[in-house]
Amino acid sequence: MTKSWFDLIPTSAMIKWRRYLHQNPELSFHEEKTSHYLIQQLKSFGDIKIEQPTPTSVLGTITGKSAGKRILLRADIDALPVQEETKLEFASQTPSVMHACGHDTHMAILLATAKVLVQLRNQFSGSVQVLFQHAEETPPGGAQEIVQSGYLKNIDAIIGLHIIPFLPTGSINVVLGGPVSTASDVMKLTIQGKGGHGSMPQNSIDPIIVGNEIINQIQTVVSRLTAPDELNVVNIGEFKAGSAPNVIADTAYLSASIRSVNQTTRQIIAQKIKAIVQNTCQTYGATPELDYQFYYDAVINDSSLSKLVYQSAQQVLGPQLVTTAGKTSASEDFSAYGKLAPLCYFILGGGLAAEGYKYANHSPQFIIDEKALINGVKTDIATVLNFLQ
Hints:
With 389 residues, the chain is α/β, with parallel strands linked by helices. Helix content is 32%, strand content 23%. The protein has helices spanning 11-23, 32-45, 103-119, 142-149, 207-225, 263-284, 303-317, 373-388; strands spanning 49-51, 58-63, 70-76, 127-133, 157-164, 172-174, 178-179, 183-192, 196-197, 233-241, 247-248, 251-260, 287-296, 300-301, 322-324, 343-349.
């Protein structure tokens, strides 16, 4: 594989795309202007078949010189309900909405990749599909909806990337087979007690006491009922009740995020939490209304495909910027594509750690080093060419 295509990468345009998208973020399932912008850019590249599996997602297909395998590259496109505090010149112009997770960079990288591959179509057989996916941030996620749409057919491999600060600028970090992320589930619980006067607790059923007991017991599920070498997390994110110091509340509400990797453990955690809720409420005479949802599965990297991505990145970037990685406790709806084809999900280093930067993805002060983007493009293109040649 030659590297003559390096000069075809539209670096300046890619930064321009990224900054426009950053200025104009849209929330999950509402990416109308974003998808329209993406379609206009794809049309300008030349002969790309453009479809929309859902109202706000975009699928482009680039056909090579002859029949062959099909590979799909995916970028997520939705933003978060976050008020930006970066003070960037191209900061979000939409109040309380921000690309605080780097999806603007993912879109720009995939647009640049598509533009180059259109020009290289005579150098590979088969086809490349570029998928700009909506609603990654909102469970059950846009990926599941796209899989169910039936637009993705006869795919042999699917690749995705995510930019993360703190890692060296432009570094490529690959899990060489196995879990990349955790499964993500959510528990929502309303506890119906019996409200009353704070001076007469014997006439009431205090849902705050019940909720507190449930929270304390849930903390033992991971620490005492699952193996310590697994990556399991239970986080209570909400606990709401009451309106005055001398009133015993009638109801309490709490929610939790539950993460796991092993499917058996995932079921054990769910069963134990449900049992804790039922038994504790019964003890105090309260009534639970429990909604426990299984959302994103764990992303599982295919060993062969991940090795190809790893080696392709080394070819075009050199070994110093390419490393192996371990699983993280983050979650991603990219896992849904595992029903269709082998997956590889890798991490692109966004830099800035050496400069004392301390804000992670989803922070209102989230920023990345734009010099990292070109290495995402190089890795994508090299992998596509190696896979299809």
